[in-house]
From TrEMBL:
Species assigned in the record: Microbacterium salsuginis
Residue ranges of coiled coil: none
Name listed for the protein in its UniProt record: Helix-turn-helix domain-containing protein
Residue ranges of every copy of the HTH cro/C1-type domain listed in the record: 30-81
Lineage, opening ranks: Bacteria, Bacillati, Actinomycetota, Actinomycetes, Micrococcales
Transmembrane feature ranges: none
SMART domains assigned: HTH_XRE
Amino acid sequence: MDREALAEFLRTRREQLQPADVGLAAGPRRRAPGLRREEVAQLALMSTDYYTRLEQQRGPQPSTQMLASLARALRLTADERDYLYRMAGHAVPDRLSSTGHVAPALQRVFDRLSDTPALVISNLGETLVQNALAAALLGDNAGASGWDRYEPYRWFVRPDVERRRYPEQDHARHSRAQVAGLRAAIGAMGSQSRAGELVAELIQRSAEFRELWDRQEVAQRFADHKVLIHPEVGAIEVDCQVLFTEDRAQALLVLTPEPRSEDEDKIRLLSVLGVQQFTASER
């Protein structure tokens, strides 16, 4: 671990960012350039004291989980993230495997979305980041661990929870889309990747998945119109707009109701109701 190089890199990247770059209000005039240490700590979900010690070359070696959070908070590119890992004394993550690092271009767009449900997912269905409305509508999946991080796993292994958010008549179509998307992911990442491990787990655990997997369907697609079920406000119809990274490894999903509709009123109500207890806590 190169403490001096790590501290200098963190400090410089922090000073190069402005509050608007990360979705924060500028507030009163600032005496120093860039973000404050407490703002980076808040974005990275760590204590200000912990982050301060890293910049002062006296902190412990950060874990890979901490580094992933810092890379996201500082809006690092893949090359910058790799440098961060090396300076912290860790192996660089495999770029062909699914990771929790959000592409900076998607993160910048995501940061500007607060009045409509929005989330960034990986090609394996991991929720990497989501705003409060997306969590209220789809469940708080960003903090899930283990196989529960992956939507295909939740869909086929925990259908009593995951499928409640979709009308029953849409279940079969959604099942096929999940499998076709996973086959596209394994084609891009290889059978020895996390995608291959996920497929092997689902083949073992779900007869429905095995049957659909044998169809050899391949597609990376999202329905442009969705009906979602919320336990408090009922059915909500939204249009789904998708923005992919160049390698299509990550996608930003933005769910918008028709303007001046009952569905728009329901989305507003979600901001008051918040996250319901039919999400990760019930898995």
